[in-house]
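Model it.
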Amino acid sequence: MQPDVTAFFDQHTSTLSYLVADPESGRAAIIDPVLDFDAKSGRTATTSADRIIEMVRQRSLQVDWLLETHVHADHISAAPYLKAALGGQIGIGVDVSLVQEHFAPLFGLDADCSRCGAEFDRLFADGDVFGIGRLQARAWATPGHTPACVSYLIGNAVFVGDALFMPDYGTARCDFPGGSPAVLHRSIRRLLDLPLDTRLFTAHDYQPQGRPLAYESTVAEQRAHNIHVREGISAEQFIALRTERDRSLALPALMLPAVQVNIRAGAFPPAGADGRRYLRIPVDSI
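Modeled.
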């Protein structure tokens, strides 16, 4: 059965969020939702998430799942806001605990982070099956970009997170803690062993050379044209290419605010005695 997929693009972070619905039952999942955050002022907004809410309500859908493909370093998750508005369980890969173990001490969150993923409603192990109405969904561990990355196979569609981008942009960086180009290559080969007509939906599109927005490809297209992992590029070549490229990349602009929130399922730190919430910026630590 084919899911009904609607994409929402956040221009500020080049992020794709997806509303994935079972057309028969009206049950749905939301993947990688964005909370708007202005780093200069520290202000949040819900413009991006409200677009999804409006679509859900227009179509009278029932949201069962709020799915994260990984702990994002480029945007803050809107999953708690959407859960309060629409319901649903927040899910992520079980190895989120590894990401928490690394980053909780960096941000001084020892008392405010479980380090076992308890902040999330559901932790998916590799191969776990769940339902979205009559659609069967499966979680696939696809680490490499981070150790906790997971792709979601829903009907004939796969939501690959940052494992793969559109063929003209290649693949995700692997220089975050726990990342590995060798592991990412294995994860990508697993995805590219799916049937050639499988639809692949990526979590970002950076529109190289100013081309129009694109976010859906097929296994066949990726195998033929992906600039980093097309047929004929060996694992060794990919590892060398990815390693060299990663050396030239700056940290994502929102990494420090985003990670400390996203490792806790999108929850901001508790308010202090003055009633304000504070994010922490570690100095000389990254």
